[in-house]
Amino acid sequence: MASLVGSRVERKEDKRFLTGKGRYTADINLANQTYAIFVRSPHARASIKKLNIDKALKSSGVVSILTGKEIADDKIGGLIAGWAIRSEDGTEMKCPGNPPLAKDNVNFVGDPVAVVIAESLVEAKEAAEKVEVDYKVLKAVTSTADAMNGDTIHEGIDKNLCFDWLLGDRQKVKDAFDKADKVISIDIINNRLIPNAMEPRACVADYNAASEEITLYTTSQNPHLSRLIMSAFGNVAPEHKLRVVAPDVGGGFGSKINVYNEDIVCSWAAKKINRAIKWVAERSESFLTDIHGRDHVTHAELAVTKDGKFLGFKNETIANLGAYARVFGTVTPTYLFGPCATGVYEIPAAYTNVKAVYTNTAPVDAYRGAGRPEATYTIERLVEKASMELGIDKTELRIKNFPTAFPFKQTLVHTVDSGDYVAGMEKAKQMADYKGFEARRKESEAKGKLRGIGVTSYFEACGIAPSAAVMSLGCGVGLWESAEVRFNPTGQVTVYTGSHSHGQSHQTTFAQIAADELGVPIENIDIVHGDTDKGTFGMGTYGSRSLAVGGIAIVNACKKIVEKGKRVTAKMLEANPEDVEFKDGEFIVSKSNKKKTIGEVAFACYLPGVRDEMKSPLPEGDEPGLKETSFYDPSNFSFPAGTHIAEVEIDPETGHVKLEKYTACDDFGRIINPMVVEGQVHGGLAQGIGQALYENAEYDETGQLMTGSYMDYTMPRADNFPEFNIGYTCTHATTNPLGVKGCGEAGAIAAPPTVMNAVIDALGGQEVTMPATAEKVWKACKNLKKSNAKAA
Amino acid sequence: MGRISLEVNGRKVEKEAPDNTLLSTFLREHLQLTGTHIGCDTSQCGACVVHVDGNSLKSCTALAADVNGSKVTTIEGLETNGKMHPMQEAFKKLHGLQCGFCTPGMVMSAIDLLQKNKKPSDVEIRDWLEGNICRCTGYQNIVAAVKEAATKM
Q1: Do A724 and B140 touch (CB under 8 A)?
Q2: What tens digit of pLDDT does each residue of B7-23 get?
Q3: Is A113 within 8 Å of A39 (Cβ atoms)?
Q4: Is B14's Cβ below 8 Å from some Cβ in A?
Q5: ipTM of the assembly?
Q6: Which domains does chain A have, with CATH numbers?
Q7: Fewest beta carbons within 10 Å, which of A511, A644, A652, B55?
């Protein structure tokens, strides 16, 4: 039987998406349902003096209006930060309460203060307009860089500082800098982004008064985790009385990891009114209230010798958390950022210091790449600048500082098990025709255009992650993953996974893995996820972990099935279990022609009794049935890596940046389905290039979101991109049996510095902040002209 | 309230609906044709594209009453005898979709492109699809799928 792992298997999920049979949360309608509209703060920072719902209650069709007072009275808990970070001075991080409905204070535009529930959506909207809230408007804090000097947002949190965290050794770094021939320094901003999954968030909550069960359909990347948080911290219902279903989910990119206010409020309110409640975000609400990403202000320095050896690295960053610390809000700018900030290089001494600040803006949390794009942007912009200042070719300088052997003990935290960074660089250069760049630059010049080339070599720590490691670093849960593999008596297989697919193709790739492990045709394998009533508790999908953690749990559960199958076959064929081998779906007794198919074995496992001539095939000690579970906790993170090269052409008359070529050469370890991996790379690149050239979330000084719709926030379109040139090198991960590393975030991690390095190269080394809009680039072109004229 | 009569996916439908009902809402809420998606509130994303009398239209930009009497085709109406349309097949074959949310609008829009331009270039495809936002695919495989479909239609 040909192996499916490594094949371009067409997706099992596609037909329903292509024929309109997908079932997204907003497609769900329940009998007798009501509709919810949230009343949200129009102010970035205010105290609530008075909230009057009398008029709204009299509005047509209103069923109920609930406010922060009721939710506090019912002791419903707030939203939480999932990761405890300690400051350099040993103190615990400072997190404010974040009630699902604000009672006394609002802290960003969109912070919900009440929910209006009515018979129809139109009536709910009309009534919401009649809710009167008397605010005392306070001065908002919106700037990341100045947040520590602003008014105190949360009582008791001085300087709006959640933590002041250090990773690394300041003294060692100082010593390294003292020895340096040259120090390269850089001030950069990692611009705030809005994830913008195409499906707006939504939830439908139902309550069964007889069984006292709440069912919540919601747009979540991790329904089990949502249920845990809503139950343990939200006090919404005990876990066995709360079912969370994340059906088809239209993209997440990290923005659907969090439990949101609306999930908690609708679940709680459905029980209160004893009816189903449906809420669907309008896009403007998504812009205001989905978590945002990035938003760092960084000063970094690299100490180098004159021949280009890196000696030391400093990273001083202010990270904006927004108004509240959410699930991955505190780990994203620390352990997901700091360790990766030294990049793919041997740097003997390094530290990263992060001051995480609160502002009156939407909460900032994990968005595709989470911390690693910010880390890669820091080091790769710095290395590119070093190559300019030292006059050493940008690829040679990188190679000079690559690790020479693996495992590679990276400066700050990680031990990278496998990789070959030089091979990745050489292949990328070849794919991009790096040598031919100078000729292309001259061609552009002849047309009056400026051409630049940019390089990035990155690695990332993903496959999050070994529980022992993450829990020692402050994570509130273990980050293993579960799988359950269940045979039907007639031989088909259902695989339950704790991870969740919202575009990642698990229904196909996980079935490929199980098909190979069990020798069962892929069409007889179903993958089930996204429902806490189906399958074992699991941790969900983020940090490129589904395959490297969840996929391995499937492999391990399949291996247990095969072990049991060997024992059962031995009993059935009167052989020793040690003599039974398994291959391509058959259990074969060695040195004989006796065998059983896995289907026959599965059937036998469900018939443990004696009927006619047939006696129980089950060996003593084995229970009936054929179903196995695995909880897989990896021994290390996984470390994808690669080199990307971009070429841009700039029209100095207009400042327009055209991305001419983009080459990505990645090492993701073993690839299960090349077609799916290509799709993941393309999508990640589009988001990363979007950050570099188009996207930017901007608040004004009063805390109003200036980029709150697709009219103002530039979403990349089809005509913004060239055809991407992608390729791979492959070193297998040594820490998991499939040798896989993860591919979902790489594009978003590597693309921003790659593109910006190319833009800045074209501009003769002038710094431009992301996104490199025509206006900024045009101004830089004018400066360039001036300085060229002076030089002449 | 007004009476809306349409031919939707070859079937005559008549429903009472408030005068301000958008075509997108009418399809999703009144006819339960939930394959047409709503991704924004400013007619930018294109997830709601359907065909009205053969031409693509963002169904959130028209009132149901505006298109009274028209023939409407949605993503649910593309199969013939259980066989997917060549555009749907091409999207499947070339991985032109991931989460599937923008897909119905993308497919409906792409079919209209090929009705108007049988052999579009890459640039023409990218230009035409400018009104459909996809956050997952980076568009590359969508462009490839449209080219593939052009050889089959």
Answers
A1: yes
A2: 999 999 999 999 999 99
A3: yes
A4: no
A5: 0.98
A6: 14-138+198-251+256-289 (3.90.1170.50), 296-464+636-791 (3.30.365.10), 480-632 (3.30.365.10)
A7: B55
